[in-house]
TrEMBL record, chains A, B:
SUPFAM superfamilies: PurM C-terminal domain-like, PurM N-terminal domain-like
Positions with a binding annotation for Mg(2+) 1: D75
Residue ranges of every copy of the PurM-like N-terminal domain listed in the record: 1-90
PurM-like C-terminal domain: residues covered: 104-256
Catalytic activity: thiamine phosphate + ATP = thiamine diphosphate + ADP
Binding site for Mg(2+) 2: D28
Keyword check for Metal-binding: yes
GO molecular function: ATP binding; magnesium ion binding; thiamine-phosphate kinase activity
Binding of Mg(2+) 3, residues: D28, D164
Main function: Catalyzes the ATP-dependent phosphorylation of thiamine-monophosphate (TMP) to form thiamine-pyrophosphate (TPP), the active form of vitamin B1.
Protein species of origin: Cupriavidus basilensis OR16
Protein name (database record): Thiamine-monophosphate kinase
Length: 276, 276
């Protein structure tokens, strides 16, 4: 459920909102290796403005069509602007990627790059100011994220555990560790980032890559023996896949830098109940 | 999607709210002749109060258990109090009851009684005042409606068209007429009503039975040859089923009284976008 003022700005462009509302749900399918089939949309809005609704629908249906995902039902009512989508997908029996399947020795992988959505958000919020060309480059990562459907499906039978990074890598990876009853060693310097983010101060890079969230990249674990296959999948999809650490038998998440020294980072994840 | 202040009172008992939020969705399954299987719940709430949530869950899960309907997913976030449920049910291929299947000559049937939910709401709103025993009797029809699941399933292959009455009989029956490209003759004096409602002024009875909504009874059409079977189904389920009119080839809904004279009633249905 996406609530105005919490999950998006009240004055967000409706086309972006339509795209993102579906994208974040498709991303949940991607994280399980599922193929999208259909979705429902429940919508509360303060008033029924035809132009606004038409733009919202356009952004949503364009992405839906790209994934062969049909709108099959839902409802609309008056109320504070809120969207609630339920998506349906298929995955063969026992082939779904899960959070509880990471095993000690697994590599930890990240798709694409992390942190750009958070970097754009910081500019929006006035936490920092980006040069206009930089902002234009990272903004689409916040406004119109790309669900990694093809990657998720390709990882069936290859990856052990997977999820999509929506609330921040540290918190989200924590879910895998907890559910799988394992720990992890993560090389914070190996985390993939855009050239725009790489030009930012070091502390901000850490903040954005480790706690940013909203990038909707996949984080997955896989046996060391699958490295070549995963690299080939990334090459075929034209999508970077980067090894950033390993699953350990001991509980807990240890962050280290490229020299193996403990990282100074202490951050947190997006809290859905924190004050806005 | 159910929005606080629009679909329920902000201070509603959470147990009732939990029941009703699921009941109105199960009612949609009932109207199609489907058997409930599972549901998801997306919930926005201003703050996470354990006692309130526990009551909400109790009301919801009690009804879910009664119908073998499992909660399989969803999410919670902070926001204006809003519930969005998606229910899943099974119905054999080509056996679903539809809105576009009414045929001229069909009887029009109503389950249970109509208007008590609206009668209770009017007391709540101060439109009229009911004696306490009367109010106590009709209030559960507003707070904890009963989805007519067993009836819907029994009507597979018997009824032609069906829907559940949520926004008011005139408006809801209008959907069947429009989709089926037929009209109807409705005897307003035949509409089933409780003894409490039957003791109210005539105009109020008409208002409550014809435009009340929120009763979640089924309105369905069926061939004249099915009268005995439908009566038997009602008897088996211990649920009144009442013939209230007939489908006509000419478009339009004509309301008549028991003598066949035009009814003076001019009303409307619940508008999800009207000002509260």
């Amino acid at each position: 459920m996406l609530v105005s003022g919490r999950h998006f700005f009240p004055d967000v462009a409706p086309r972006s909102l339509g795209h993102k509302a579906l994208a974040v749900n498709l991303s949940d399918l991607a994280a399980m290796g599922a193929e999208p089939r259909a979705f429902t949309l429940a919508l509360a809005l303060p008033d029924a403005q035809a132009a606004w609704l038409s733009e919202l629908a356009a952004g949503m249906l364009e992405l839906a069509d790209a994934h062969g995902c049909e709108l099959i039902g839902g409802d609309t009512t008056r109320g504070p602007l809120t969207l609630s989508l339920t998506v349906f997908g298929d995955v063969p029996v026992h082939k779904a990627l899960r959070r509880d399947a990471a095993r000690p020795g697994d590599d930890i992988w990240i798709s694409g790059t992390l942190g750009d959505a958070r970097l754009a958000l910081g500019d929006f919020r006035g936490e920092w100011l980006l040069p206009e060309p930089d902002f234009s480059q990272v903004r689409p990562r916040m406004d119109t994220p790309t669900p990694r459907i093809a990657l998720g499906m390709a990882l069936r039978g290859v990856a052990h555990a997977a999820l999509d990074i929506s609330d921040g890598l540290v918190g989200d990876l924590g879910h895998i560790l907890e559910r799988s009853q394992v720990g992890a060693l993560l090389d914070v310097d190996a985390l993939p980032r855009s050239t725009v983010l790489a030009s930012q101060p070091e502390a901000r890079q850490l903040e954005c890559t480790l706690a940013g969230g909203d990038d909707y990249e996949l984080c997955f674990t896989a046996p060391v023996g699958e490295r070549d296959r995963i690299a080939a999948i990334g090459a075929r999809l034209g999508l970077a896949v980067t090894r950033v650490g390993a699953i350990t038998p001991e509980a807990g998440l240890r962050l280290v830098d490229r020299e193996g020294n403990p990282s100074a980072y202490h951050g947190t994840s997006f809290d859905h109940f924190a004050s806005p």
